[in-house]
Design a protein that fits this description.
348 residues, alpha/beta, twelve-stranded mixed beta sheet, 10 helices, globular
């Protein structure tokens, strides 16, 4: 890949009654962002102009109807719809949810067709998006179906990366989902992502137990001893630096997480509560394992502050930079993997 290539960064707008529009505007009001990428917002020029006026912004948009009209040095807005949209900040509205899906579908199509290079998704409202035509619990499952690959929710910062064995699964169903095959697939996905997307040459991965105290030798559940430990042993024997299972209650508080390149939690809250406690506001939700690069901020629609100009765009801005970094790292990794005699640059 050309080192100085200007990356086309697609943005789906998320729930229009939430804070997504504010995050986008605050991020790209800084013209220096255009030195790093060419943004393409999938919405409409009418809708984005409404937000510009509401937030009293001086941002300038370039409306387009086809991706071949994308201009570098401009904040492009792809017209997914033409009509006016009634915005009511902070309200749950399935009609608004339908617009968030229109934005996501068009952005995904452009990503799949390589007319954009990466995708950053603003927050959606999981209830508002449900319809006869869209029955996914969120972005991750939808993108996995459309883009291909074995997706994994990977919450990342420069110093902390947390993946999940199970994501949007009810707690009561977690043990039945965790099989040897699933554990192996998820660890392999994290391992490859660390090498390919984040340039970690010899990844060290910690895995948290399923039960309290990782089962306490079977006293508090048998799943850790019967499924998790033997699978981890087999993966270790294959040469990967995988450790655990660790008792989740003390793992983060003790600072043990700092000894690893990534941590894999057994279920959603086990991983995301400590991640967001440590990294909230600058963490990024990265979907590892896909054939394309997608990131998003580490928070939701924040209806309670929508439209008030109070949203912190730190996580969204970091999602933009992470998408760019991963795209470049992945392109370099693939280039040097195909030509192993060509020396890859070291990560500084």
């Amino acid at each position: 890949m050309e080192k100085d290539k200007k990356i086309k960064l697609g943005i789906s707008v998320g729930d229009l009654n939430g804070i997504g529009s504010e995050l986008i505007i605050k991020t790209f009001e800084d013209n220096r962002m255009l030195d790093f990428c060419t943004p393409v917002i999938f919405a409409s020029i009418k809708t984005m102009s409404f937000f510009k006026k509401h937030f009293k912004s001086n941002i300038s948009f370039h409306g387009i109807n086809h991706t071949d009209q994308i201009l570098h040095g401009k904040i492009n807005v792809f017209n997914v719809w033409k009509e006016n949209v009634q915005i009511n900040f902070g309200e749950e509205d399935q009609n608004i949810g339908a617009y968030s899906i229109k934005s996501l579908e068009m952005a995904t199509k452009a990503l799949k067709n390589d007319t954009i290079d990466v995708l950053v998704t603003a927050p959606i409202h999981k209830h508002n998006i449900q319809s006869e035509n869209f029955k996914f619990p969120g972005h991750t499952d939808y993108l996995a179906e459309k883009l291909g690959g074995k997706s994994l929710m990977f919450m990342v910062t420069d110093s902390l990366k947390v993946g999940l064995l199970t994501d949007h699964v009810p707690v009561k169903d977690v043990p039945s989902h965790i099989t040897s095959e699933l554990i192996t697939d998820k660890i392999n996905t994290v391992y490859l992502s660390l090498k390919r997307d984040f340039r970690v040459s010899k990844p060290r991965i910690a895995v948290l137990g399923i039960n309290p105290h990782a089962g306490d030798n079977g006293v508090i559940g048998a799943e850790d001893d019967d499924v998790l430990r033997p699978t981890l042993e087999k993966i270790k024997n294959d040469g990967k630096l995988v450790y655990g299972p660790y008792s989740a209650d003390s793992f983060f508080g003790s600072g043990n997480y700092k000894n690893f390149d990534a941590i894999i939690a057994s279920y959603h809250d086990q991983g995301l509560i400590p991640f967001k406690t440590i990294a909230f506001g600058h963490g990024v939700n990265y979907t590892a394992g896909l054939k394309k690069v997608r990131t998003s901020p580490d928070h939701g629609t924040a209806f309670e502050i929508a439209g008030k100009g109070k949203a912190d765009n730190g996580s969204f801005k970091q999602a933009v930079f992470t998408a760019i970094e991963v795209f470049r790292n992945r392109s370099e990794y693939d280039e040097y993997s195909q030509n192993p005699l060509k020396k890859a640059p070291k990560k500084i």
